[in-house]
Every structure is written in C-alpha cells, then in structure tokens.
Specification:
single chain; alpha/beta; 4-stranded antiparallel beta sheet
Length: about 260
C-alpha cells in the first residue's frame, strides 16, 4: 500500500457529478486526441483510472485501455459503464502494481501523481511506468505547477475557486513539499438575505485531500532515474507552449529504443 489517500464509497458515488464540467465531450476532446495519437496502434495503461472519466471515452475511440485503481469504490463506479473484457481494471497502487503485457502509452491525468505523498513513491511510479512500456513508448503526466509564486511572505494559503457553489483553497507545507486542498461545497439552499449575495444560509460539505507537489525539473530527474527521456512539455492538451506563466503542464517522456 502506498501513501495515497483512499477514496471512500461516498466520494466515489458523487465524483462524476462533481466533475461533470471536466467530463463533457467538448472538454475531453483535446485530451483524447493527444493520448490517442501517442497510443497509435498499441495499448494504453492508465494509472489511477478512477471512474473512467478519460479511460472509458479513450477506449470508445478504439484504443485498448487497461486501468490501475487503488480505490475499489472508484473502480466499481467505472464497472457500471463498461465490462471487464472491454476495459480491464486491476485494483492496486500505481507505484508497484504490475499488469500483464506491454504498452505504447502509460498516462496519469488530473494531478494524480501528486496523490503519492513521498518522493520515493513518485520515483517508483516512474519506474513502474517504464516497466510497462514497450521500447519507444511514452509516459504522460498532467500536473499543476505549484502556485508558490502567489504566496506573499508569511502566507501559506492560496484560493483557487471562490464561487456560489464552491470555495477551494490550498495550504502549503514548504518543508515537506505537501499541499492540502480544502473544499467547501454547497449542498443545500438557504435564504438569500435580500438577494445581494450576502447572508446566504445553505449548507456546505467540507472535504480535503493531501498532495505532494513537484516541479517539472524534479519530474525530469525522476524520469531519468527510470530510464526515460523528456520528449515534450506543453501547457495543456491542446499543445499550447509551456512558459513561465503556465499554471500546469502536460509532459511526455519516452522509453529509448
């Protein structure tokens, strides 16, 4: 077992509804285009496949997909969408779980490598990806750039969403290189106190998750330790250039032939 926090049944059951905006065909099209091109005629392995937000539509594109997922509850939600023969899923952690066969593509989306809370485990994740790749195959990671530039001296919290239905902010442990994402999600309506947006009653669900953040250069070193070479880094799935102002990156490492 790794240090990743385990998704509960309740979290798994509401995951798709909460991520609906990131699951539409329009939103996913650049992601699927990017991954399908790299997979080519080969097989793809998704680490931390979750409920299949990306893996299921990628399989529908004709790419054979296999998943690894730590949470049995998340895997159970995925299984309602497609059967085991169409999209096999192995319950296990992404740092050590080995599945049969070789792949032209291994990928991790939506900041998921940060669920591994130690550097050693993140290195092992790279090694596990390399272990599954055919020569010439690619490992792809989508990950945020740590927003430490937004921290004034003495401040350890950065908001990332302040809306009527949700308030989210990250707090940082700069020594351990860990951030905690805090979420307050609206679950019920209340009186608006005059319609000016103030004095809302309502109810909110509080949640949080821990993540180990890593800089792109640190990931490149992890890749080198696993025998992989950086091939491409872009700011998003649409291929836009990665710059010093980019808030995330999609990075591709290649296993030498």
């Amino acid at each position: 077992m790794t240090s990743s926090e385990l998704w509960t049944r309740a979290t798994a059951e509401r995951y798709d509804a909460e991520e609906a905006a990131h699951s539409s065909p329009e939103f996913l099209a650049p992601t699927l285009d990017f991954l399908a091109k790299l997979a080519g005629d080969g097989r793809a392995l998704e680490f931390a496949i979750g409920t299949g937000r990306v893996g299921v539509p990628l399989r529908e594109r004709g790419v054979p997909v296999v998943g690894v997922e730590l949470s049995e509850h998340m895997a159970a939600v995925l299984r309602r969408k497609t059967d085991e023969e169409t999209l096999p899923v192995v319950v296990g952690d992404m740092a050590t779980t080995v599945v049969p066969g070789a792949f032209t593509l291994v990928y991790l989306v939506y900041n998921t490598i940060s669920n591994l809370l130690t550097q050693d485990e993140q290195v092992e994740c790279f090694r596990n990806a390399a272990r599954h790749l055919e020569p010439g195959g690619r490992f792809v990671i989508e990950l945020l750039v740590p927003p430490l530039r937004f921290l004034p001296p003495g401040q350890l919290a950065v908001p990332f969403d302040v809306s009527r239905g949700h308030v989210g902010f990250d707090t940082f442990d700069l020594v351990e290189q860990v951030l905690v994402s805090h979420h307050f999600t609206r679950t019920g309506d209340g009186e608006d106190g005059g319609g000016d947006g103030h004095g809302d009653g309502g109810t909110y669900r509080r949640g949080y998750s821990r993540h180990r953040y890593a800089w792109p250069a640190e990931l490149d070193l992890m890749a080198r330790l696993a025998g992989l070479e950086l091939e491409q880094r872009v700011a998003d799935w649409d291929g836009s250039p990665f710059t010093q102002d980019s808030t995330k990156h999609v990075s591709v490492w290649r296993k030498p032939i």
